[in-house]
Structure formats: structure tokens, C-alpha cells
Amino acid sequence: MLKTVILGTIAAIQLVSLGLLIYWYRSTRWRRIVLVIGLIAILAGALRRTVVSAYVFRGGSYPLPGGLQDLIALAVLTLLLLCGIILLHLIFKSLEETTAALAAGESHFRGLVEQLPGVVCRRLNDDAHTLLYASEAIESLTGYPAQDFVEKRRSYAELICPDNRAAFSPVEERIAAGKSYVVQYRLCRGSGDAVWVRERGRGSFDDAGKLLFLNCFISDITEQVQSELLLREQHNLSVALSHSTGLEETLTLCLRTAMTISGMDAGGIYVRDIEDGSIRLACHAGLPEWFVQEAGYYPVDSTNSKIVFQGEPVYTCYGKSILAKDGLGQQEGLKAVGIIPVKHNDTIIACINVSSRSLEQVPLYARTGLETLAGQVGQVIAREQARAATREREANLAALFASIRDMIFVLDEDYRILRANPAAANELGYTEAELAGHFIWTFMPEHTWEDTENGLREMSEGKKNTQDSFLCTRDGREIPVGTSIVAGTWKGHPAYFAVARDISERLRAEEIRLSLERQVQLARRLESMGILAGGVAHDFNNLMTVILGNAELVRDTLGKEDPICRRLDLIMQTTEHASALCRQMMTYSGRGPLVTEILYPNRFFRELQPLLRSVIAEHVWLEMNVGEKIPPIKGDPSQMRQVMLNLVLNASEAVGEAEGTVSVHVSRKTRTAGEWEDVFLVPPGDGGEYVVIEVTDTGCGMNEEARKQLFDPFFTTKPTGRGLGMAAVLGIIRAHNGGIAVSSEVGKGSCFRLFLQAVDEVPEGPGQRESAARALDLEAGDTILFVDDEVPLHDMCRIAGAEEGYNVLTAANGAEAVEQYLQHREDIRLVVLDMTMPVMDGAAAFRELRRIDPGVRVLIASGYSTVNHEREFSGPQLIGTLPKPYSLSDLRKVFRSMKKTAVEE
């Protein structure tokens, strides 16, 4: 046992000695100790060779005393233990010093690492980019502490923007080959924005060539990338804009640049409407159609417009801003949003909107670029808007130039044509190229050159506004034109702009106007004469009525056998002739009494044709042409026959002794407002259906002087005659609210056209002639109120009424009639009312009586036409009319027809 311990101890001493010798090579501080231990080791070896070896190997031939052996063994063991303790102390102290040195070196290394402009890291080459070590600078780069990555609480790969992760694929070969690699990508920071980084690294391998990890250096190159990107994109944008053809294309290029430099995946440019201040989406990218429809327009008072008009860029997140109210951004998944106003001359004209579905914030590095781009976009939009406005003005001017119906000429200072519009070329029969280069005089009559040149010069000097002249067409036709000229500039050179308007219509209108003025003057003269004639005829009618009534009364008193009755009959006949003349005068005035009915032209002219043939000369041929389905008219058949007889007879006489033709043509025409302005006395209105009667002859015709006096009373070109025929025709047509036109030329005949308004179609049958008075169931003892300003007629009415058993009250004017009616309202069954009276006329009295008693019955007595009165007072109150002059017999017939017995008979 002892032998084994001794041998083991000796072996341990030798091993320790060997270790110390090895350490001696690393540190010289403990050389002396190592030497001492070496001596001890040598001593132990000597003892082993002498004492121990002798004892052990020689089998105890020389046995030592027992105590000495124990003492030697104890001394050796003690010495060895002491050496072990010393060695352990030295080892631990050496370890502490080494650790301290390592810590100091590491601290120094960390200090150097932290001073580097980037992140020093060691990572695995896996999909998660697991970091084994990262410098503290990673927190300022990513927003997260290094410990989160080292302890795997966060993956570095998740911070790499998805669209940049493919950037690592090309460098895998270099890593596997042990070469250094460089890769650039974007990191999404914890604050929501992104930065550009450049990663440089090299792999570490074991002895077997297996990749252990990557030693990397990551630096922030955002400013560099942004500067390069901005310069590149601005260059590309400038090149692209130089080839753009419109505002929309220009804005699309600007938006594409904004999205590129900001890294956003959606965006749009809104342009402000100058008129109402609203903003409209002019172009967009990365947005669905429904979003564009919802967000394509914002009025001036909307939230989005107010944000833009604040004038400052806004960078925010949809979910954290007031933009979240409409919910559009969240619905589309948009997160980061940037709204950058676009200004020009300090006025907001547009805004750039960019958005991202992955980033929480618009990157800081992109904001400066966007704002710089906004300034450039402002200039571009203003320039393009100015170009667009210019193009629009030029297009409008070109369209206006081409669409104006007036002839436009651009002239140089020598009045040579530089350009003409299509209207000028079409009117003159030339092409625009044929007109260009010629003097304007080339296309004017030679006799007008001097006046036109003087006129153009005066207009160019501002001395006059227009000049009337003529332009000649290719076929020699002369067009009257009114020309105005203004000075201006054409393609940078002084020029004149001449506008020539065809004034043919104006001249014709002027002729028509003068003709109408002459007609109006004639109409006024005729109206004045008609009023005079009507007034005279009315007064004579009243006198004739008194004379007729009293003569008849005297005759009835004397009896038919009395010789005086023959004189009375002569007085009555003469009075009838005078009354007929008065009726003619009333007809001329257009206020003669009418007894109207529905006339059917086809039947009327068929029945009238034999009568017309009988009044014309035998050598004159009568042609009748009545169209089919001519609408009916409302008129007095006897007066219309008189009109046709007068016209046909005059036409026949105009033919003279030679053979000729008189044509009567009847047709229907529709008149629109403003048509037939040259027609004499056509009533104004919206037009409608008219029956047109034309009487044409091949006679001698009339000169202008004769036409002017044609309708004057007592004017005639015949050796005999009163000259009331055409005057009567005019009066009848006026009474029928019609019109008449006359065209005539000496030696070529005349044409009279009558215009009568058609009435609604009714089944053709016998005309319903308006009765003089509708029958009433009057009885003896009933009271009649007779109203007339001619007092002698009162006695005649009393006599006629007394013969039928009526009581007759009289009044000399409308006011007395109203007063009498109020006093005897319950007794009066009929009112015979004259229309023309002093104080209160018949019309006013009629209205007042109707107001007092809606059941009043009135018989109108007048020498004028009662058509208008019948229209005005239509209703149950008006029972009929009694034309003046009337005789005592006429009055008796009226009173007798109203008796109850007459109705029963």
C-alpha cells in the first residue's frame, strides 16, 4: 500500500512540475517559484532513487527502521501538500487576473463597437435572422433593444419589409463560398416608419467547413438612398414630363414618383376647383374602383378639404386621425397616410396623398422628398393648367373661327388675306387656300374699291365702326356685307381682323319694315277714316231710325188710301237707301252689324261660282280651285259674298278688253308666330290654322301709288263709281278679324290674298244662323225697359210695346237704365239696350245690370257689329241683337216673337 501511495505521489509531483514548466512559458512572474518546485521535484526523485527505491525495489534488503520510514513518508507527503496548495493559489489568482484582463479588453472592445456608425452583430443564417449578438446601436436603428433579439423575444426578419426580403437570395452563394457580402433593404421601425440599411458580413466556419454564424455590420443609409432616389426620380420625372401630352399624364407621372420615393403602395393627386373650392381626384394608383368613387370628390367644407387648405403637410395613421370617421381607409386596410398640399404662388392648387398598407407611418426620410416633389408638382400643374388653358382657348378660338357664320378675314397691314374662316370660303365659293395671299379688293366689285379702302382705313383708325360694301362670289354674284375691322396681332405680326356679315336679310327686313311702316301709316289713316265714317254712319243710323219709325207711324195713322202715304213711302224708301249707304260706311269701318254662321268653304264657293261667272266679262276665264278638306270659318255669308263679288269684278275689269284669266284659289295654311309679317292687318297671336283665299288676275296691275290708296274711301281709277268697293272689302275682313295682302306689278296683274282664321271642325250641314232674338215667354202686362239716347225712339218703342200689351219704361243712358232697373226690378222682363250712349255706355250698363241681377234678359240694339259684344257678354243674359237702323215694323216683329203665344205657335 505504501509503495502505491509513494509512486502515485511521485507521479503527481512530476505532472505538476510539468504544468508549472508550461505556465513558466506564459508568465515569467513566478519563475523562482517554479525553480523551487523543480528542485523539490528533483529532491523527491533523488529520495525515490535512494531510500524508497532501495526499500521497495530491493525487497527490503536494507530495511529502515520503522520510525524513520514513517518520518520520511510524512515529510514527503507534507511537502507535496504544501506544493499543491501553493500551486492552487497561484492558479486561482492567475485566473482572476486573466478574467479582469479579458473584461477590460471586452469593455474596450464594446467602447470601440459603440462608436461605430452602425450595428455590429452576429447572427445565424436562418429564415428568422436569429441574432446571437447585437450592439446597442440596434435599438436606435430598429426601436427595439438588443436583448429582445438575442433572447428571441423578437425576430429581426419580421422587421425587414416584405418587398425587400428577396434581396438576400442573390448573396447566399457568396456566404457559402466564404466571401463577404453586401445587401440593402428596408427595415420597419417600431415607430411605424421605415429606414434603408446596408448589411455587410462574412461567415465563420469550423474546421470541417460548416457555417457556424455570420459576423455582420449594419449601417443606416436612408439619407444616402433618399438623396440618390430623389435625384434619380427627379431626373426621370423631368425627362418624362418633357414628353407628356396633358395634365392627366403629367399628374400620373408625378404620383408615380411620389409613391416611389416614399415607398407607399397607394396614392392619388387631388386638384382644386378654382370656382367652388372643392377638390377632385385627378389621378390615382393602387386603389380599388369603389374607393375611388367614394373618395373622388370632397366639397370645400369637408374634413379632407379643410386639412388640405391648412397649408401644412400631414403625416399620420388612418386609424389615429380624423380621417377614420368615414371608415374608407380602414376598410381598404390603409395605415400610413401623407397629405402634402401643393402650392403655386402661395395658393393651394392641389395635394398629393400617399398611403401604405404595411407601414404605420410615412418614413421620415421620405417626407422631405415628398415636400420637395410637391413644390415641383405645383410648378408642373400650374404650367400644365396654363398650357391646357392656352390649348383650350386656341381650340375654342379655332372652333369659334370655324363655326361663326359671319365671314372672317385676317389681313396684314396691306389688307392682304392671311387667313379666312370656312364661312368666308363657302359663301364666296373658294377654298381657304385660294383666298389666302390675295388682296381683299380682289373679291370686291371694282367700283367699290376706293370707298371700301377709305372705309377700312377709317375703321382701323377708329373713326367709324362699320362699312357697308359688297363681296363677289366665284360665280359673279354680289353679296351685300357689313364689315367691321379691329387691329391685333397674328403670329407675332401686326394684323387686322375683319368681320363681314351678309346683310341681305337685313336689307330685306329693312324693306319689309319700311313696307310695314307704310302699311301701319295707311292702317292708321284708314282707321281714323273708319272711325269718322263709323261715327257719322252711327249718328245717321239713329236719325234714319227716327225718320223710319215716325214715317211708318204717320202712314199707319192716315191709312193706305190717303194720298200722303205715297209721299211717306217715298220718304221711307229714300231713308232705306240712306241706311244702306250708312251700312256700307259701317262695313268700311269694320264695325258694321254681322250675322255670322259657320261657313264651309267647299260648299260656299261651289254655290258662289255661278254668281261670280255672271259678273265677269265673257272674254275673261274664271278658274276656281278649292282644296280638299278646307276647314270651316265663322263669318257673315252675305258680306263674304260681297267681298268675293268686289274682288272678282275688280279683277275682271283690270283684265280690260283683252282675253285674260281670273283665278280663285282656296287653301289651308298653318301660321306660326312671326310669320306673314308683310300681310296687312293680320291679327297678332301664336298662329294657328288659316283659310287663305287668293284672287289673281292677268290684268294691267297697279303702280305703287295706286296700291297705297287702294283702300282709301272714294278712291277709284274707274271713270264712274263711288270708290267704296275695296274700302268695304277691307272693313269686312277687319270685322272678321282677318287679314289681307296685295301684290301687284304693272303689266303683270294683281293678287289679293285674304286670311281668315279657321274654327274647329264640325259636321257639315245647314248653317245655324244666329237669330236676331231668342223667343221669351212674355205676356201682356209685362214690362220692357227701352234704353237709347235718341229720345224720339222712346215713343216708337212705347207704341210698338203697347200694341203687344207691354208696359214700356225708357232711359236715355246707361246710368238711368240702372236706376230704373233698381226701382222696377221685379217687373222688368226685358231690357232693350243701345251700345253707344253718353254718361254710361251700353257695355258698362250691361255689366252693371248683370251684377245686380244675374237673371236679367238683354236685347242689344246697335248700328255697329255686335260680334265682340256677343263674345264679351256670352251667357243666358244676352238673348239677341237688333241691328240699327230698324223700323217700327222690325220692332213690332221682335216684340211679337217674344210673346208666349209665339213660342207655342
Summarize the structure.
With 905 residues, this protein is α+β, with helices and mostly antiparallel strands.
Describe it for me?
The structure is a single chain. The protein has 905 residues and is of the alpha+beta class. The protein folds into six domains: 2-111, no CATH class; 117-220, Beta-Lactamase (2-Layer Sandwich), CATH 3.30.450; 227-395, GAF domain (Beta-Lactamase), CATH 3.30.450; 404-502, Beta-Lactamase; 596-757, Heat Shock Protein 90, CATH 3.30.565; 783-904, Response regulator (Rossmann fold), CATH 3.40.50. Helix content is 46%, strand content 22%. It contains 27 helices and 28 strands. The chain has a six-stranded antiparallel β-sheet, sandwiched between helices. A five-stranded antiparallel β-sheet has the order 2-1-5-4-3. Strand 1 (119-123) and strand 2 form a beta hairpin. Helix 16 (504-558) runs antiparallel to helix 17 (564-589). Residues 24-28, 52-62, 763-774 and 901-905 have low confidence and may be disordered.
Largest sheet: 6 strands, antiparallel
CATH H-level superfamily of the largest domain: GAF domain
| Poorly predicted residue ranges | 24-28, 52-62, 763-774, 901-905
Per DSSP, the total helix count is 27
Known CATH architecture of the largest domain: 2-Layer Sandwich
Count of folded domains: 6
Range of strand content: 15-25%
CATH topology of the largest domain: Beta-Lactamase
Please describe the topology of this protein.
Layout: H1 2-26, H2 31-57, H3 66-114, E1 119-123, E2 131-134, H4 137-142, H5 146-150, H6 172-176, E3 181-188, E4 194-205, E5 211-220, H7 222-241, H8 247-262, E6 266-272, E7 279-285, H9 289-295, E8 297-298, H10 303-309, E9 314-317, H11 328-332, E10 336-344, E11 347-356, H12 364-403, E12 407-411, E13 417-420, H13 422-428, H14 432-435, H15 449-460, E14 467-472, E15 478-490, E16 493-502, H16 504-558, H17 564-589, E17 597-599, H18 601-615, E18 620-626, E19 633-635, H19 637-655, E20 660-672, E21 687-697, H20 704-708, H21 725-735, E22 739-745, E23 749-757, E24 783-787, H22 792-803, E25 807-811, H23 814-823, E26 828-834, H24 842-852, E27 858-862, H25 867-872, E28 878-883, H26 888-897, H27 900-904
Parallel strand pairs: 18-20, 24-25, 24-26, 26-27, 27-28
Antiparallel strand pairs: 1-2, 1-5, 3-4, 4-5, 6-7, 6-11, 7-8, 9-10, 10-11, 12-13, 12-16, 14-15, 15-16, 17-19, 20-21, 21-23, 22-23
